[in-house]
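Subject: Protein record for review, amino acid sequence with backbone structure tokens
How to read it: Take the token row as a discrete description of the fold.
Enclosed: The protein record, placed directly beneath this head.
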Amino acid sequence: MTDIRKLDLNLLKAFSALLDERSVTQAAARLSLTQPAVSGMLTRLRESFDDPLFVRTARGVVPTQRALELAPTLKRVLADVETMLQPAHFDPASAEFSWSVAGTDYSLQAVVVPFLARLRRLAPCIRVMVHPIDDGAVLRQLERGALDLVLTTPEVTPAELHLRPLYDEEYVCVLRTDHPVLAEGLTLERFCALDHALVSYSGGGLSGSTDRALAELGLRRRVALSVPSFLVLLEVLRGSDLLAMMPRRLVDGVSGVCVVPAPLWVPGFTKVMAWHERTHNNPAQRWLRELLLETCGTDEMKNGA
């Protein structure tokens, strides 16, 4: 049985860093310690848990099964200690730290931009670091503290994370304000005959939700352009005869394009925020999440600010 008297917080922090970095050298750099110091801490950890914990390879170290089993509890204990050391009362006006959030360009425009406007007024010294989202990596990034929050959808959110819905989004048909089809009316037949553009975050995709909805009706459309960004797509629509199905929150009130009733219904999506147990009880993180949720429910946000 592990003797708790032989463990201290620094050993647990070293354990966590080794789990994240899979390298003694990188863990040492993260902890601002020397490599021999971290190696010595690993020796003490091995003695305490009666397990190698990490095995050396050509590329660094890999955790043993025992280390992987301990990882969730370890992360939770360190998060609880961090929360315990936080001030009992969180004061946004005087708070000064960095907050990391990841999302698509849609999330940045529809969620982060209006959120930042409110955050700057209430907590001007909180720095926000925005990252592109990698669905396959978010769990590990949240576990290790590289991210504090992700803006995503329920379908791709790992089950290990906390999740809270922000709003439901719908798709609308968008084209330039002087598009010739506006004088004729957009029937389903014309919709399928016109050239379309869509967003493919992975790059190169030529089908999406609209194509699946059309396929259920036995129909197809012509996709002439695929781009990796909704913001680029808006510029394309302003200067061409292409049309696109886009999330409403990106186009309400935007100049140079207009929204017309789509001749078919395309399922929308739910935008959620997700976070790790590591930050679940942290007062500052809780305040930021509540502010984000509140921002998403304001009239300013709904009107596409």
Summary: Confidence is low (pLDDT under 50) at residues 299-305. The first strand starts at residue 54 and ends at 57.
